[in-house]
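User: Some background: our group keeps a shared notebook of sequences we're curious about, and every so often someone picks one and asks for a predicted structure to add to the entry. Today it's my turn. The entry only has the sequence so far, pasted here. Could you supply the structure so I can complete it?
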Amino acid sequence: MISETTYLAAKMISATLEKYFAEQAEYQMGASEKRYLPKANIIEAVIDAAFWASLRREEGYSPKISIALMASDNVVQPLRFANPVRFTPHNLVKLSPAVIQPSIHLGVWHEEDNLFIWGTTHDISEWCLVLEVIEPGLLVVKHKRHEGYGKFVNIAVLKGDQIKMVDERNLTLNGYPDLLASLLGMPLPDAIDDSVNILVELAVAMRRHNRGGLLLVVPTHQDEWKESIVHPIGYSIDPVYCALGELISKQAEDESGGVWREDILRTIDVIGGFTAIDGATIITKNYELLAFGAKVARAARNAPVPKVLITEPVAGQEAEIVDPVKIGGTRHLAAAQFVHDQKEAMALVASQDGLFTVFVWSETLQMVHAHRIDTLLL
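Assistant: Of course. Here's the predicted structure to add to the notebook entry:
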């Protein structure tokens, strides 16, 4: 039997998540497949057990777990246990080392009112609810990107007693829609974005090293951005590093897509690694690496950035116009000033505390717009 829920956030969000998956799958699933959609009481029980598991330690380690809520008969080549294991915090912690690698999930399903861990799986459907335990008390509900590859689409973030529901209506997409739309799971116009959104994966790579970083994306074949950089630049690349752009252009040559994806993600990790170096990493909109370790300075012809608009794709969060010194540390201030000076550029800032912000110039508002998107990247 399913135990009574003691984690209040699980009770509060379960019905909302049931409705979300039902609405999203309405036109994609047949009547027979809809029996696999998660129900509120099951979602509540899964979140409750995962939360309490996250607070335990196994041999000195906090568990990191990925749970796929789906039946084993709906999976291609599942790894099934001979005897399914009861779904409890204790068993989740015990099995967590087996699913610490990316793309491996504990398969969980119910028989009447009983929840079981039936095994592990790489394969999941587009509308399978995935629950990740990131760190103690921090859970993320997500699902697979539709017919795509790369980072999953986040739906909700639960941190202790805080619940953040992702709400794309609360995120203005003016300025650089491809990056933000991809993170929200929206359709994208370019063929490249149907499989890997480069900037999304770069953002993930920037967060992975946990050192913080600043990535400046500047127009191709233009040098105006140099007016906002201290010279000499820390580490200039000569000739420019074009491997990422060349891989993108070769996508059509890899019919299966597997080798191409591996190569491109490996190259993204190389560039993402440079953002751990103090200073800014600079790439063009064609993904050519120009420099890293660069120091941002206000262009001589421009005034200091006066105000910044901050938005976050979370239900209930209001847009706020603030003084730039209140948006974060020196990286955030440098990013805001750079975009204020170089209005065709974009700046991505990863903080050591996990925050991630995209800075763009809003022509409509005539000010720097800071999109805080760490909720989408977890």
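Suggested note for the entry: Residues 172-177, 186-196 have pLDDT under 50 and may be disordered. Residues 242 and 282 are 13 Å apart (CA to CA).
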